[in-house]
Amino acid sequence: MPGEFDLYLGGAFILLIFEAGRRILGNILPTFCALFLAFAYFGKYIPGPFAHAGLSVTGLIEELYLTTDGLFGLVTGVSSTYIFTFIIGAEGFLKVELRLYERAMFFAAALSLITPGVFSDAVGLALLFTGYSLASLRAKGGIPKPTTG
To answer: CB of 7 within 8 A of CB of 15?
Structure first.
């Protein structure tokens, strides 16, 4: 059973997560999550196949904050391991590409072909489909478009 301090800290943490979600993604995500929390709390009052015993506020905080099924579970693990690594890695590779492009177009073109292959197949495809391209980065960086002879 969690202590009183754990419950206060867990409640504050959940509220901070809701506020961070609201600031980053707008009101829709916290509203959607609040509906699911209400479903978890008021489950004993819901008729039909969706009825369940319901969780107390203590049970909700304990499940979300103190177990690996909640906020520190699979989603956090995946995002901290793969998504964060992809963002940092892609940003670093793209900066290297731009620096090399200023010196020699051949190296930048070679890196733009190699960069997606450095990551796993799914992440490489994500890099291609999210709009990161050497041409758009050249335009943002003010580097003139190369001419072909």
So the answer is: no
User: Contact at 8 Å (CB) between 11 and 3?
Assistant: no
Q: How far apart are CA 18 and CA 9, in angstroms?
A: 14
Separation between Cα atoms, residue 120 and residue 83, nearest integer Å = 12
Blockwise average pLDDT, block size 10, the chain, 149 residues: 88 92 87 93 91 92 88 78 70 69 58 58 53 57 59
Give the tokens for residue 64.
């979300």
Tell me how far apart the alpha carbons of residues 26 and 33 are, in angstroms, rounded to a whole number.
Answer: 12
State both tokens at 110: 């070679």
Q: Are 127 and 119 in contact (CB under 8 A)?
A: yes
Give the relative orientation of helices 28-41 and 4-25 as an angle to the nearest 10 degrees. Answer: 140
Is the entire prediction scored with pTM above 0.90?
A: no
**21-41 tens-digit pLDDT:** 899 888 988 999 899 999 999
Q: Which of 107, 111, 112, 115 is nearest to 86 (CA)?
A: 115
